[in-house]
Amino acid sequence: MEHQIIKYNRIQLLLAFMLVLGLSSCYKDNEETLYPEEGNNCKTENISFSENIFPIVNNNCLSCHSGAGASGGLRLENHTQISDAAVNGRLLGAINHEPGFPAMPQSGNKLSECQIKQFEAWVQQGALNN
Ligand code: HEC
Looking at residue 32, what is its pLDDT? Predict the structure, then answer.
């Protein structure tokens, strides 16, 4: 009898161990679904300037990049100004924090992966005023 109980406990232990292993491997596999904004749920088809791009600039850039005294002499107030800076690569270099570009937003948090992807997609789709 006693022998059997010990055996049962060993099997339980083994099962628990396997469960932990299984869970931890799932955890790694599913990193994408844990941060949906960074992965599959980031909409990058048919990016709209007015719905996707302008709100990002408005919330993160305009406080410095508008008016006569705009930082770095760069104004990002409308489609023409934003698409000019985006198409010549300076804007994407800055938000991606690439070497050789000032990291933007200056002294703020980097834009999210999804916001950066949407900016890149918008440029690839022709930087339309849509
Ligand atoms: C707190 C103020 C501030 C905010 C917010 C800010 N910037 Fe800037 N930005 C600056 C300053 C200051 C410079 C000039 C820095 C330099 O040249 O080293 C600059 C330079 C730049 C440049 C380089 C201009 C050039 O001539 O190459 C780009 C592009 C840029 N910013 C884009 C952005 C974008 C896009 C955002 C929003 C995601 C943003 N910035 C948010 C202050 C800001």
Answer: 47
Supply the residue whose CA is at minimum distance from atom 33 of ligand 1.
104
Asked if residue 121 lies in contact with residue 41, where contact means CB atoms within 8 angstroms, the answer is no
Q: Which residue has the tokens 């950066």?
A: 116
The predicted-structure confidence for 75-119, as pLDDT tens digits, reads as follows 999 999 999 999 999 999 999 999 999 999 999 999 999 999 999
Residue 29, pLDDT score: 52
Nearest CA to ligand 1 atom 31: 104
- Percent of the chain with pLDDT strictly greater than 70: 72
Please tell me the distance from the alpha carbon of residue 105 to that of residue 123, in angstroms, as a whole number: 19
Q: Which residues contact 32 (CB under 8 A, 6 or more apart)?
A: 38, 39, 40
Residue type, 96: N
Instruction: Tell me the pTM.
Output: 0.77
| Helices 79-87 and 113-124, packing angle to 10 deg | 90
User: Contact at 8 Å (CB) between 56 and 118?
Assistant: yes
Q: Which ligand 1 atom minimizes the distance to the CA of 102? A: 18
